[in-house]
Structure formats: C-alpha cells, structure tokens
Design goal:
about 375 residues
Length: about 375
C-alpha cells in the first residue's frame, strides 16, 4: 500500500525545471539585442544622449552658480539653471556662427592654399621622390576644396533641427527633474526599488558630471592655448581652428592627434618649413600634451576608472554605431554602461573587465562631494 502511494506521488511530481542559463550568457544576449537597437535607432538615441549629457553639464554649472552671492543673497535654483542653460546653448550658437561665418573666407582662400600645397609638394619631391610627388599631385588635383566646404554646409538644416530637438529635450528634463523623483516610487511600486535606482542614477550623474565638467575646462584651456599660439604666429583661421580643437578634445586620443596635426598642417601650407610651422608643431604640440597627459589626469583622478583599452574599444564601438557623434559620446556612454552593469550580477563581469583595476564602481562609491 505504501509502495503504491509512493509510486503515485512520484508520477504526480512536477518535472524538474530546466537549468537557468549562466549570467555571462544573459549578458551577451542583452548586448546582442541592444547593439542593433542602438544602431538602427540612432536618429532617436543620438539627440537624446547629447541632451542627457548637456543636461548633466547644465546642472553642474547651475549648482556652482548657486554658490555665488550677490548683495549677501544667493542665486535661486531656477535662475541658476536658466543662466547655465543660456550660457551653454549661447556658446554653441556662437561657435556655429563663427565656424559658418569663416567658411566663405576659407572658400575664397582655397585657390591660394591649393597653390601653396603644390609648392610644398615640389619642396618634398627631393625627399619622397619625383614619382611619389607626381602621384600625390595628381590625386590632389581631383580634390575640390570648395565642393568639400559646400558639403559641410549642406547638412546645416539637419544639424539645426537636431539642435532644436536637443534644446527642447534639455528644457523638459530640467522642468521634470523634481517631478520625476516624486513619480519614481509610484512607478516602481516600492520605496526600496526607487531608492536603489535613484542611488545608481546619482552615481551615474555624479561621475558623468565630473567627466563633463573637467573635460569642458581642459578642452577650453587647449583651445585658448592654441588660439594664442596661432595668433602669435599669424596662422590664418585661428578662431574656427580653435573651436574645432575644443570640440574634438572630447574624443580620446584622436582629439589629441587632431589638435596637434591640424594647426601644424595649416601653418605648413601658409609658411612652409619656416619658424611659424615649427613653433606651432613643437610648442603647440608640447602644450597640448601637457594638458592631456598632466593637467587633465591630475584634475580627473579616478573619476571614471576605465582601462585605456576599454576607452579605445569604446571609441571604435560607438564610432561604428553612431559615427562622429558616437566618438564624442563614447567615454561617458561607456562609463554609464559600466555603472549599470555593476548593479546586476548577470552583467557585473563586463563592468569588471571595463574597469582599470577590477574594482567595480558601485552605487555607493561616489559621494556628492566628489563631483566637485
């Protein structure tokens, strides 16, 4: 009797649940789904990502503006954010105006620079050989500088539309900032979940805010130093070149190379191998290397704690997904990805591999004071 009931119990027992996949497999599957989504949805994600970074930068500037006292009274929070938003978007509007205003002058100077380039190739023929010089000259004859400059102006309407979209994104983010914090516990249905998500969001905000704040200052310093060097040597188009250096300084490694090579090429075309070229190349290049390799690490410290290989891989990955915009956003986006991965056991492996020394940044590792 006992044996029959035992057999019936075994027959009625539910089948064993299949083994769950390992965490690393879940992480890879998540990334495999996410990457195509980011690539094909770039028209939506790129403006949104730019808006989030500008929002973080504006909040950082606004917090520092609130510390300013006028007649013994501090600036209200809303006024500080309005001032910081006006300053940030005013700077970008001014930069676009300067660059587009110089395009006409650059187009007019294009034939002169083409003639100078031919002369420089003649000077190099002894070093590289006449055949190589002739091939280089033949290739450059098919390059239309004016058409290239016109192609830069052609997408101006799309850039303006994107800039307007980013502006409204940032505007509504600032307006919804406090309301979102109140809605979060209701949406998640738990104060504990809301607190956990809020802490992770604060960690992301503080680390990216620190990155944006430090890189904005060092990029401005690099642009100001280059402008002084170009004006001292008399190189043409000092203002648009300096602005381009400011923006490309946010791109790891590539920005440094461009910041040294581009001014030197303009100086070479204008003056040949005279002293202005060597001054721009040696002095300007040395100052840029000091800014990127001494001043910036001294200010940044362990703000991101990402390995150098991870930075280069991030540059290649985000550049492949989103083009030039991805190159600009590669470091902060990867930092966000690393912090998010650190919050989930299935993805913690990727956070560990991306970090510089294996010490994963957790949501409690960063304080508000460190953002300063």
């Amino acid at each position: 009797m006992i044996s029959e009931s035992k057999v019936e119990a075994e027959q009625e027992a539910p089948p064993a649940a299949p083994p769950s996949p390992p965490p690393w497999f879940l992480g890879l599957a998540s990334i495999a789904i996410l990457l195509p989504l980011l690539h094909y949805g770039r028209d939506f994600f790129v403006p949104l990502s730019i808006a989030v970074l500008l929002f973080i930068l504006i909040v950082a500037i606004g917090e520092r503006t609130r510390g300013i006292t006028i007649a013994g009274r501090g600036i209200p929070g809303w006024a500080a954010h309005v001032l910081s938003m006006t300053a940030v978007f005013g700077f970008f509007a001014g930069a676009i105006r300067v660059i587009t205003g110089q395009v006409a002058e650059m187009s007019a100077a294009a034939p002169v620079y083409a003639t100078r380039l031919g002369a420089r190739i003649d000077n190099l023929s002894a070093a590289i050989g006449q055949d190589a010089a002739d091939r280089l000259r033949a290739k450059l004859e098919h390059f239309d500088v004016e058409a290239a400059l016109s192609s830069l102006i052609a997408p101006a309407g799309a850039v303006l539309a994107t800039a307007l979209l980013v502006f409204f994104y940032v505007l509504f983010m600032l307006a919804e900032r406090e309301a979102f914090a109140r809605k979060l516990p209701i949406a998640l249905g738990s104060e504990a979940r809301a607190e956990r998500l809020a802490r992770a969001a604060r960690t992301i905000s503080i680390i990216v805010q620190r990155y944006m704040w430090i890189n904005t200052r060092t990029s401005a310093l690099a642009a100001a130093v280059l402008y002084a060097v170009l004006k001292l040597t008399g190189v043409d188009f000092a203002a648009p070149l300096s602005l381009l250096i400011f923006f490309t300084a946010f791109i790891p490694t590539v920005g440094t190379v461009f910041g040294i090579a581009a001014p030197a090429v303009f100086a070479l075309l204008q003056f040949g191998f005279a002293w202005p070229f060597w001054f721009v190349l040696i002095v300007g290049g040395a100052l840029r290397l000091i800014i990127d390799n001494v001043i910036q690490p001294m200010l940044a410290g362990r703000s991101l704690d990402m390995s150098s290989l991870a930075v280069m891989l991030a540059l290649a990955l985000w550049g492949g997904l989103w083009g030039l915009a991805g190159a600009f956003l590669s470091v902060p986006l990867t930092a966000v990805f690393m912090i998010v991965c650190a919050q989930f056991p299935a993805l913690r492996l990727f956070a560990t591999l991306l970090s510089a020394d294996g010490a994963v940044v957790s949501r409690n590792d960063v304080s508000d004071e460190q953002a300063r």
